[in-house]
Specification:
By secondary structure, this protein is α/β, with parallel strands linked by helices. It folds into two domains: 187 residues, Rossmann fold (3-Layer(aba) Sandwich), CATH 3.40.50.170; 87 residues, Methionyl-tRNA Fmet Formyltransferase, Chain A, domain 2. Helix 1 links the parallel strand 1 and strand 2. Helix 1 packs parallel to helix 5. The longest helix is centred in the middle third of the chain and has 20 residues.
Length: 290
Amino acid sequence: MRLAFLGTPDAAVPPLEALVSAGHDVALVVTRPDRRRGRGGELSASPVKKAALRLGLTVGHSLSQLEGLDVEWGVVVAYGAIIPAPLLDRLSMLNVHFSLLPRWRGAAPVERAILAGDERTGVCVMAIEPTLDTGPVYASVATEVGEKTASALTSELALKGAALLVEVLASPDLLARPRAQQGEVTYAQKLTSDDYRLSPTMSADQIARVVRLERAYCYVGERRLRVARGRVSTEVATPGTLGQRDGDVVLYATGGSFVLDEVQMEGSRQMSALAWWSGARLDAASPVWS
């Protein structure tokens, strides 16, 4: 098939590569414009743009470039912007969405599934409608969430979604018979900095889920501490205190505790929690976290 592809982050690269490997003619790749990154402020292309150029594909940065383009379908994977209704009227589009719809419609389905403690999630190939993630589903595949981090789960779903996308496009029967979404609707709101902040009012299990998002942090005194890795413990003490027990650095929370394995103090490098503790020079005999 002759296709247009819309996508931006790393998770959109496997579906693009799969389309090319399957022999589809990707006439145009539309991705978000280059952004300034790093201390030098140099322009950096999106992962999808880098992949498209490596594959010898034409790249654009505006949806207006789809006007008059002779393609059979548009394929969208984490493009990062709403597709206008007039464009959808002219070009039918498939979307690879990283959840089992209608659960977790919206911007952050992987993260919300982890935070909610979902046992299973998955990926859908769906039709795009003007309303948010409401379109019928052509096919879906599920997977266990387990103890996967957000990046690991996203990578897994990207690969599963790539294979599913190729399967759907190869099947006239699947393309002709999408099914309406059924079940309870939930929305995956975009995460804010507060969603990554750990709190002593959380249970140890809740803390573990936030840590698996890979941007978790708390404050020790007035300094911000990023929590990179850790594990749940049943040891109990006053919530909001922390201490060192048998070689472990422990955050005490509500009804349990969380053992820190890898941390990063602001302005420093990532290190073992014990190495951080040894050099932290905490003032109080019973330091606290918040």
